[in-house]
Amino acid sequence: MLNHLFHGQLQLGLAQAFAAAVVAFAVVLLARRREIHLESETAVALLRGLLQIVAVGSVLVLLLKAPRWTGALMLVVMIVAAGATSTKRAKNIPGAFQVSTYAILCGAGSVIALMTWLGVIGTAITTLIPVGSMLIANAMNTNGLALNRFRSDVLSHVGEIETALALGADPRQSIAPYVQESFEASLIPAIDSLRSLGIVWIPGLMAGMLLSGSKPIYAAIYQFVVLAMIFSASGLTSLVSTLLIRTHAFTHADQLLLRPGMVGEKK
Amino acid sequence: MNVLTTEHLSRRVDGKVLVDDISVAVTSGEVFVVVGPSGSGKSSFLRLLNRLDEPTSGTVLLEGVDYHQIAPRELRRKVGMVTQRAFLFPGTVYDNLSFGPRQRGEILSQSKADELLARVGLPGYGEREVANLSGGEAQRVSLARALANSPILILLDEPTSALDEDAKAGVEALIRDIIRETHLTCVMVTHDMAQAARLATRIMLLQSGRTEKIGTVQEVLHA
What we know:
The complex is a heterodimer of chains A (267) and B (223). With 267 residues, chain A is mostly helical. In chain A, 75% of the residues lie in helices and 0% in strands.
C-alpha cells in the first residue's frame, strides 16, 4: 500500500519506518495495559535507532569513496561504542567498560581480522562494515548478557561466595560456578540462531543477497558463514569478559565488592 | 596470651559509621561475646576480624602480628567463621568438610573427617547429600567445616538464630562443649542476651558501632 502512496525512495523509507514504529508502539501500549511501562524507553530507543542507522548510512555513502583503512577505523569506533553500551548491563561492576571494550575487541576484532585475512569477509567498505558490525553487535549483546547474568548471580549468592572466602578459597574459585553459568547463558541466543537457521528464520543478509541477484545456494552458505562467525566472535567475547570480570569483583585483599549495599542495591 | 587484639578498629561506608574505634583484646581460650541491638555494628565488627571487610582505620593483631602482614587466605584459614545460615556447598557432607584443606592442596583424611563429624554429633554422615540435611544438621556441618581448617580463633555470627528451638539448644550445647574441650578462642555475635550469659567469658555491648560496655557477664548484663 505504501509504495502506491510514496514514489520517492526516501519518502517511502520514512513512511515504512513510521509504520514499523507505530507497530512497535502498539506493543508498548499493550504492555501498558498490564502495568508494564516501557513508553519513554521505547520511544527514545526507536528514535535513537533510526537516527543512528541513518547516520551510518550517510557515513557509508561518504566512505564508499574513502581509502579502505577508514573501514577499520570505523569498526574500532563501533567496538568502543559497543563496549560502552554493554557496560550498562553490568551496572556498578568496577572496570566494566574496560573489560567490555577489551573483550569485544578480542572477540569480534580478532574474528573480523582473521576472516578478512582469509578472504571470507571482503575488504571493500560496503562488505567490511555491514558484516563487521553484525559481529560487533552480536558480541556486544553476548557480552551484555554475560555481565548481567554474572552480576545477578553473584548478588544472589553472596553468602555462598563469602563462605568460600572465609574458608580460605581463592576468589576466582569462589565465583567459578557463576562465571561458567554466565558464559553458558550468554551463548544461548547464538547457539539457538545457528540451530534454527533456515527452519525458524531466514536472516536478513540472505534475503538481501537474494534480492541483489546472488545465487540462492551461495547466499545460503554465506549466511551460515556469517552466523558461524557471529558465534565465534560472541563466544570469544564472552569468554574474555567473564574471565576478566572475575578480578574486578574483588579487592586486592580478596574481599567481595559486588554485594548488596555496596553496589546501590537494597540489602 | 592475646590471640586477637583490635586497635582503634573503625569502618565507615559512604559516610555512615558502622564500627567506631573499637579496641579490645581476646585471650586464648576466651569466649568473647558481642551483643547489642539490630544495626549496632555487631556483624560489621565480626567481618573486620577475618578481613571480609576492610577497616577504614585501625587494625587487628592476630597472635601479635598485624593482619595486614598475613595473606588474606592464610588469615581466613586461621580465623574460622560460622554464619547465621550454613551456606553448604552442593555435594556430600565430606565434600564440605574437605573444602578448606583442599584450598591448600591438602586432603582431609577419612579418620579426621570421621573425628570432626563425631565431634559435632553427626557420626556416619560423611556421604550424605547436604540437600537432605535439616537446619540444625546443616549448621553442625558448617561448624565442622570451619574446624577442619584447624583455626586458632573462631567467629560465630548468630549461629543459632535461624534454627528452631530444639535445634538451637542442640547447636548451642555443641558450641559450648567444643569450646570447653578444645579451648578454642571464640568471638561470638548474638542478639540473645540469655545465650550470651550462658556462653560468655566476657561480653562487649555495642551501640551505634561503639563500645558501650565491656566486662564479665555480671558487669555488663546485671549491672
